[in-house]
Amino acid sequence: MTMPTIEIAAQAGACYGVERALRMVKEASSLHENTVQTLGPLIHNPQVVQQLEKDGVQVASSVDDATANVVVIRSHGVAPEVVQRAHELGKTMLDATCPYVKKVHHAAKLLEEQGYQVLVVGEAGHPEVEGTRGNAPSALVIGSPEELKAVRLKRKVGVVVQTTQSPANLQAILSCLLGKVEELRVFDTICAATSERQAVAADLSSRVDTMIVIGGRISANTTRLAEICSATCANTHHIETPDELEASWFATSKHIGITAGASTPANQIQAVHTAIVNLCEQL
After folding, report:
1. What string of H, E and C letters represents the secondary structure of 131-165?
2. Average pLDDT over residues 236-247
3. Does the annotation mark 246 as catalytic?
4. What is the pTM of this model?
5. What pLDDT, on the 0 to 100 scale, is given for residue 112?
6. Domain map of the chain by residue range?
């Protein structure tokens, strides 16, 4: 078999917010050895979380369960009452919330304070969305235009968006709102890096025979990348580690594409690339 072309997407892998959170935790761990815990997984990447645990940074399911002196707010953020509870318990808080996620929280709070019915375009139960709802307790989560049909809309509606949502889904929901409310205020809080990553992945997947998407299966943005790539490349596979790769995926491939979610470090992307090369050499 002739070695196929393997192309890594120009925009792929760990975003600013994830790199910032990892840097903050590693610095804190070096200063406070074995006394740092994160509130839930720091990022949606099981391999990275496992490595942090090996390095002494454990995961606490809640503030009340945290035994460490230093507690880290993960990149997805938390509701204000979680921070308040941590202070009550005398914990030192390290806020690793992505700055772009904080914009969503602030926008939702502002809209609620100004009397708007707040709609959060996103995935119900996702940590980022729950943090947003903590800042605007009356907010409703809308995942699709279909879900909007069940909502009794008020006169004034304000919209914020989970940072990893697709522009297409936001536009579809806004189209349904137009003409149904008297006043509509929208904060487009989709992360620019997310939009760029999705656009580049869509372009690459349309040009290749096989598309590999790397990232945690519980990662919202990685799952969305896989959906986008699948729309233009039927031979798309979402994996977390190189061990999941199968030689049969590349048997007739002449051009292979690789992209990765925002919680995927560069070394994981390189490991998958190397594994694909090795598999293709054996075919």
Report:
1. HHHHHCCCCEEECCHHHHCCCCCCCEEEEEECCCC
2. 98
3. no
4. 0.90
5. 98
6. 5-13+193-282, 16-98, 100-190
CB-hemisphere CA count at 13 Å for 110? Answer: 11
* Residue range 275-281: mean pLDDT, rounded: 96
The pLDDT tens digits for 195-236 are 999 999 999 999 999 999 999 999 989 999 999 999 999 999
35 has a pLDDT exceeding 90: no
What lies within 8 Å, CB to CB, of 65 at 6+ separation is none
Place of tokens 């792929």: 12
What counts of helices (H) and strands (E) characterise the chain? 10, 12
In CATH, what number does 16-98 get? 3.40.50.11270
At residue 283, the pLDDT reads 86
Between residues 222 and 35, which one has the greater pLDDT?
222
Report d(CA 142, CA 258) in Å as an integer.
31
Average pLDDT, the chain: 95
Residues 6+ apart with CB under 8 A from 258: 6, 7, 8, 9, 12, 211, 212, 214, 269, 272, 273, 276
DSSP annotation of 3 reads P
pLDDT at 31: 85
Give me the CATH code for the 5-13+193-282 domain, please.
3.40.1010.20
Q: Which of 128, 130, 196, 227 is catalytic?
A: 128
What would the DSSP string read from start to end of 216-239? -TT-HHHHHHHHHHHHH-SSEEEE
β-sheet bridge partners, residue 214: 239, 260
How far CA 173 is from CA of 123, 139, 185, 252, in Å, comes to 14, 16, 13, 40
Alpha-carbon span 205 to 209, nearest angstrom: 8
- The amino acid sitting at 170 is L
Confidence tier at 92 by pLDDT (50, 70, 90): very high
